[in-house]
Design a protein that fits this description.
Number of helices: 7
Distance between the termini: 21 Å
CATH class: Mainly Alpha
Helix content: over 70%
Radius of gyration: 19 Å
């Protein structure tokens, strides 16, 4: 029975990593489409989002079937709980990459602004957080997970800085307003991707250490332990 459960856990892990790879590709392509003003690539990101959604549903179904048919140990239950929390965050990152791509399609119908303020740096920081959150999960690395969580403040600061730069463009010329607003939305999308990476890392710490660090101001000792 345990061997069967271990096999199912491995299959779920592989499905999650496949989802992670698809999401990372969507995110990378959305960033490239933004930087290179590549409408075709942006439309590819949009079209591929359905595949991410389908895989999320497959993982959900497989996880529920596993819970219904097995009696996992405490450690195994933590893994299943982690999987159920991580999967929606990955799907959300995919949706946000699609949102970026949709704004790119709109932006490419007009001339570009002078520069993208801090957006490229913000995009790279969010991309790195997502990649490292998946590395932390694969390697069960709580220390890396905590490092990623700490980087969220950097992304928040870059988001604010980017918005201030875009606000300057809007004040300089009303003709810039529509494009600047779309780019401000793009900045928020990347910030939310980083937030999802933070959520993933919080679950990695829970998986590895049986410690709840989300909402630390309200978490209690009763929420932790084997």
């Amino acid at each position: 029975m345990q061997r069967h459960f271990d096999r199912d856990i491995q299959e779920l892990t592989e499905m999650l990593l496949r989802l992670g790879a698809m999401v990372e590709e969507a995110m990378a392509n959305s960033i490239r489409a933004l930087m290179e003003r590549d409408t075709d690539l942006a439309e590819t990101v949009i079209a591929n989002d359905d595949a991410i959604d389908r895989l999320e549903l497959e993982i959900d179904q497989a996880t529920l079937e596993l819970i219904a048919t097995m009696q996992p140990t405490a450690v195994d239950l933590r893994f299943v709980a982690t999987l159920m929390k991580i999967t929606p965050d990955l799907e959300r990152i995919g949706d946000l990459a699609q949102d970026v791509a949709e704004r790119v399609v709109e932006l490419n119908r007009e001339p570009p602004l002078k520069r993208l303020t801090d957006l490229p740096q913000l995009a790279r920081a969010a991309q790195e957080m997502v990649h490292e959150s998946l590395d932390a999960f694969v390697n069960r690395d709580a220390n890396l997970a905590r490092e990623v969580i700490e980087r969220d403040d950097e992304v928040d600061a870059l988001t604010e800085s980017s918005f201030r730069g875009l606000l300057t463009y809007m004040m300089e010329n009303p003709a810039n307003i529509a494009r600047a607003i779309r780019l401000a939305f793009v900045g928020k999308y990347f910030e939310r991707m980083a937030d999802s990476a933070t959520n993933i890392c919080e679950m990695v710490v829970y998986l590895v250490e049986a410690q709840v660090i989300k909402h630390r101001n309200v978490a209690t000792d009763g929420q932790t332990g084997e």
